[in-house]
Amino acid sequence: xxxxxxxxxxxxxRPREATVEPRLLLIDLLRDVLEVTGPHVGxxxxxxxxxxxxxxxxxxxxxxxxxxxxxxREVLTVEGLAKDGxxxxxxxxxxxxxxxxxxxxxxxxLMSAYYLLSQIPNPTEAQVRHFIxxxxxxxxxxxxxxxxxxxxxxxxxxxxxxTAPSPPGRGLG
Length: 173
Ligand code: FES
Ligand code: FES
Description:
The chain is an alpha+beta fold. The chain is 29% helix and 14% strand. A five-stranded mixed β-sheet has the order 2-1-5-3-4, sandwiched between helices. It is globular. Bound molecules: FE2/S2 (inorganic) cluster (FES) (2 copies). One FE2/S2 (inorganic) cluster (FES) binds next to loops.
């Protein structure tokens, strides 16, 4: 049996460490070991996007990476969006525009939207639809999600700030 691996990473700005089996997935590290349960598991086969998080500023589907691959890196999940008790403008826009129903897809959808606005602060509707193409929603029909992201972009007008990565383009997930 392979030896466990000691890893250190930053999750939502907080240094975390764990000793993990090499086969442990990043999503299972987050949810089951570190108790960061915002990212959801919808399929476990990289189809649904419910597990989307940012890894060093770029979107990844956390069910497609091993936890050990996050060693030394920064993870941002939906829990890291609100600051000082205030919803992130994207979260507020989802609320205002009824961008969710059951909410299962929402943590991943928000992270893909966050990544989009870090790359393209004022996206077109087509760009919004392109960036959330890897996130499935079984409830909303997407219309209000797109509306919410465009609303957030208009209200923010300067991008999400902070963790904007390079190079530009769609995420890894
Ligand atoms: S759980 Fe569905 S893409 Fe990861
Ligand atoms: S709100 Fe239910 S899956 Fe998107």
